[in-house]
Amino acid sequence: PLRHRTDLQMTGRLLLHVTLLGSLAWGVQPFSQARYPSVKVALTRELGKNDKLRYRLRELRPDLDVEELPCIEHCELASGEAVPGLLREQSFDYVVVTSPEAAEVLLRLLETGFGALEAAPPLRLAAVGDATARILESRGLAADFLPSKALGKVLAAELPPTGSNRVLYPASKRAATTIQDGLAARGFEVTRVDTYDTVPAAWTEATAEAAKATSVVTFASPSAVKVWTEQVPGARQMPVACIGETSAKRCEELGYEMA
């Protein structure tokens, strides 16, 4: 069954703050046709990664106009090539994987560095969130630890000490130091390697026009919030749906009214 938490309040502007564990979907019944006769919903994740949410929204409300308007894209970093060598030369008690994208990049690095996943050394994986764990499991790598809440700070607080407490953390270049700082404070030795970066997606004039006509914009990352804010006039006056606490926090920092 889907596990989710949805909080809805309307005070002048609409805030739909959604935190979902395991699936990106929410009940959109609060958008009444009387108040919002034609709701245009913008999905801002990387191109091709909005399909599950788009399908679920259309399933629940076929009248919604759901459009993919990617704000970000990911690029792998040369520094990530160090990961296979570190795994060959050193012993780690955990490899920490914090997002589906981080999982996909790690899998590619293992395949490239070892020739095949099966040739990589056994890994004890700590994953943030069910979605991240599913990416790993789809390629035969089970997540050995998931925190009670899908947040990096919770993983840092709950990861069980074991062995030498050495952790390899393949991360986004833009990831905060929350995990390594939290683990270090508990006595873990953390080796962080930035394996990928998140950059703004290229927008055409048509993309910009579609963004202006949006009724509700969804964010699943702080980077997407930043790009949308810079690209769309009057962005802060738009109703916002945030998936995840970090996205909501970034909206607050950039001046969105969080009702």
UniProtKB/TrEMBL annotation:
Q: Which protein are we looking at?
A: Uroporphyrinogen-III synthase
Annotated pathway, please?
Porphyrin-containing compound metabolism; protoporphyrin-IX biosynthesis; coproporphyrinogen-III from 5-aminolevulinate: step 3/4
| Highest taxon above the source species | Eukaryota
Cite the source lineage. Eukaryota, Sar, Stramenopiles, Ochrophyta, Pinguiophyceae
The Tetrapyrrole biosynthesis uroporphyrinogen III synthase domain sits at 65-256
Record PANTHER family: UROPORPHYRINOGEN-III SYNTHASE, CHLOROPLASTIC
GO molecular function list: uroporphyrinogen-III synthase activity
The Swiss-Prot or TrEMBL record describes its family as follows: Belongs to the uroporphyrinogen-III synthase family.
Q: What is its EC number?
A: 4.2.1.75
Q: Name one Pfam family in it.
A: HEM4
Q: Which GO terms describe its biological process?
A: protoporphyrinogen IX biosynthetic process; uroporphyrinogen III biosynthetic process
Q: Which reaction does it catalyse?
A: hydroxymethylbilane = uroporphyrinogen III + H2O
So what does this one do? Answer: Catalyzes cyclization of the linear tetrapyrrole, hydroxymethylbilane, to the macrocyclic uroporphyrinogen III.
Which residues are the signal sequence here? Answer: 1-30
